[in-house]
Each structure stands twice: as C-alpha cells, then as structure tokens.
Amino acid sequence: MRITLAQIEPITGDLEGNTRRILEVIQQHDADSDVIVFPEMAVTGYNCGADFECEEFVQDAWECIEKIIAPAVGRSFVLAGAPTFASPMHERNGSIRIHNTALLMHEGKVAGQYHKRFLANDSHHEDRKYFLPGPEKILTFEAGGSLCGVLICEDIWAHDHERDLAAEMKLACPGLSTLFVLNYSYFTSAKQPFRMQLLQEHALRNRLGMVYLNAVGIGDIVKNIICYDGGSWAVRADGSIALRMPEFEEAVTTIHFEPYALQCGGTEEWPDFGNRCSRLWAAMCYTTRRMYDIPGIACAQVHVSGGLDSALVAVLAVKALGSDRVTLITNPSRYNGEELLATGRKLAEALQTPLHVVPVQNFSESLLLDMDADARRFGRSSLPSAMGMVRSTVDAVGRTVIGLAECHYNHAAVLATGNHTENVLGWANFHDIGSIGLFQPIGDLTKTELFELARWINEHYDQELIPAGLYNGEIKPAAELADAKEDPFDYALVSGICAEIIRHRKTRRGLYRAWREHTLTADYFPDEGVYDIPEALWQENVDMCWKRSRTASVFKCAQAAPILILSPRSRGFSSRETIITRYKG
Q1: Does residue 486 register a pLDDT over 90?
Q2: Which of 113, 253, 305, 546 is the most core-located residue (most Cβ within 10 A)?
C-alpha cells in the first residue's frame, strides 16, 4: 500500500489557507498514492476556542471539505480532520452540537466518517466543552489490498481509559492490517519517546501496522502557548519502524507500507530522540519563530537585566529569528551593580547584537519627586521615595513603560523573560517587563532547569554565549531592586517545590510526606542532599512556596504574558488555578 503522510501546519482559523495546502498535496500525490492522510482538524486547526461554538464557522469548514472533494479526490483515499455537526445539530438552548471528525474521501464524495470517541479533558484540553463523543461505530476501508481502520489521537491512549479501542477494532475486524491515527498532539519534553512506545505496544499486541500522522504548528488557549511537534511515524506489526518524520517542520512523504514485512533481526533499535535539553530547545526555537512570523511581527525585543533568564531568552531570540530581527535593551537604575551590567555587555558581544542602554533612572527619579511632592501637599510624614517597595515598583514598571514605547519605535514585540519558579512564587511586580510581552518562552522551566539548559546551549554552540558565571554559581541570582538586592531563595529547594506544586498538584502535607519517604520527583532535586537538610528547614521552604503560589501569585500570572507549555501541566490556563481559594494544603 502506497501511503502519503502529509504532516502539514494548519493555521488556526485559516480555513482557506489550510484547504489550499490540503488541495496542493492531493493534486501532487493522488496519482501515486493509495491513501493520503492529513492531521486531526487539518481544515480548521485544533485550538479554535469559541469559533467551535459558532455555527457559521463549522458550516464554513464543511464547505471547505466540499471544495476538497469536488476537484481533487480521485483514485486515492484521503483522510483529513474537521469539525462536523452532530445529529441533532442543536441543543434545546440553541447551542450547536459538533463532533471531532475524520473524513474519508474517495472518488468525489465522502466515503465515510469517524467521530472521535475519547475526548481529552486534562490540563489545557477541553474537548468536552466543544465536542460530543462519537457513537459506537468503526470506520474501515480497503486500500491497496489491505483492510484499514481509523482512530483519532486520544482514542489510542488506552492506558488513560478503561477501553482499548485499537484492540476492540482488531477483535471486530480480524482482517484489519493497518490503523491510521490522525493527531494534533502537543509537545512536551518526554512526549515523543512515549508516543513511540505506545505505537509499538499497539502494533505488537494487536498485530497491526500503525500510521500515526501528527500536525506541526502552534496554537494557544489565551494564557498558554502550545507547540505541536509533528514527528509522525509508520510502525509495522512487528514493532519495527517503517518511517520517522522530522519534528518542528512541515513534511510530505510517500512510502510503500507493508504492515507484515518482518525485519531481519526483529524490531528496529530504539531511535535516538536526543537529550531533554535538545528537545526543549528545538520546541522553543520553533515556537518563537512561528509566534513572530504568523502574525507578521518584524522584531523581537528582549530586555537584558544581566541575569540568566534574560540572557537565555536573548540567545533564543537570536537563534530563532536572526540577529537582524532582535533588539536588545538594558534599563539600568542606581541599584544595578557593575557585575550584571558587564554580563549583559558580554552577552550582546557574543551574540554580535547591539545592546541599547536606556536607563530607567531619570524616569524613576522624576516620578518619585512628583509622588513626594503630592505626599507633602497632604501633610504625609513618610515619603514614597523612602520606601524600598515603592522605589522597586517604580523601577520595575518603569522599565515596562519604556519597553512598550520602544516596541512602537522598533516595530517589535517584547519577548518576556519570566521563568516557572518566579511565576509560581510571584517574584515579579505586576506588569514587570520580565513578565509582559508576546509570550514567555521559559515560563514553564524552573530556575534549576534553566541552569541545565544554559550549560547545554553553550556546549551545543561550542561558544560561551551565556556567561558561565550565571549558571555555575559564581554570580548569584539578583533582582537588584531597592528592596531586594539578591533573590531570597535557595533555588535548589524552591525550584523543585514549585514544580511539585504546579505540575503534580502536591499540597504542603504531600510534600512533607514525600520528603520523609524520599519520594520527591528526582528530576526536580538532582542533589540528593535535599534529604539531609533539617526537616524544619524543608517545611519552612514548602510553607513559603505554598503561600506565595496562591492568590496574588495566580493573579499576577493571569495578567502576565502567555506561557509556552513544555511540561504536561503548566502554570496558566493549563493548570486552571483560581484566585479566590482558602485551601491551605
């Protein structure tokens, strides 16, 4: 059977553009393919949000399917995803009822439909908000002498559900030889190896060839950015790999697929997925590039503090977009020491990108003078300029005012520099330049994960792009504000605690117990010395992180730039935290 796998990048809501891309592939490969397969929701994109509740949008998507069928679909079978109306089409209150559908098209007509049955509803997923689960009905067809079946994405994640739909389909149709799976599966650092294991298990257990076609691209759920990594696969019934497609790029490949063609020596060796840092970096570079290219933003503007976070984001911007599309700015105040100013200059020199120095000092002092004058006018005994918190806020938000003004001048959008640990702790002012902007590419990475990534970046590029002192302990993390010269945290402890709270929903009580039982997530605490500290110190840090992670911290995060999801559960819309809660954990 000759199969064309079209790993395309659907753009959210671009029905005309997505349809045009689908037609191009069909016209190029119809004559030499038995099956052409496209991703789940290829016509509309997956993260359409409220558009899925709009009747005209779903109707327009169906009209695009009709455009695909009429001129293009000939000898080959074409599989592509789109939303379709359920029956009945409306709820009693007038809301529309829709399915997430795989459409089988052949010889100028829709030859069959399969409606997704398992609707993902964890973390950032909200399939059940928009879609109805499909009926107990399978879709099979014969192509190239093989009996084929169709499932959609979550339908094969049997370990998360009480049923195994792939096994049920094979039991109902013993002659089934190939299972096509249409996907819109998002990236996390451990996802691709897990997908491979999942496909091989299905192939071996059910004696099925597995053709797994994933979308590539980006989407959003307002407060989180989601990256889709492609990396599609074809796996034979013996678990051997017939095709592995590239990640983070469009690709269209035609293969001669024989599901029962056994390999000499059995299953192919486990593929190389690279290390965790290389996968993270690939996702971050791809997402940054597309976040600027899709809306047509000319330039990324990064505000360099001299610290690790902004240094890493500056390198990311230059590597993703090119130095000609990046503006580096530093906004020093009287509280910035020479050490971090020097690291900022060293960074810019290594990146061969000019560093624009726009001090916040004059702005801050002018505003504080006016605030003092107002306080005197009302007979206040204390002055705003004498309060460290006031001065810090003026400096931090003053940088934002300058930054947004510079954006208009540079035709740019700020690339925010906030990380996971400070997002959870609320270690930023409201509308701090570190947390506002187009999105936060490192907002889902803890401080200790950034130390590891920075070291890897320098090794990967064989150059000290990021000053090594920022991650090897020579230079301490420092906010350099009037009320906080150095960050008052032991990041070896609090980074892991914050990750446990957000990613694994651990409570204070749960973290106390995990410490006593030595069952903390090992990746978050690479130094096993965490178990040697006094229990009182551990509980003190847990209590501080828990308290800071609630209410005001959530409120700040809700108003900050969207965070790129890199872990299974990210802070933002993905974690569904609430501002109003009294749960003490």
Answers
A1: no
A2: 305
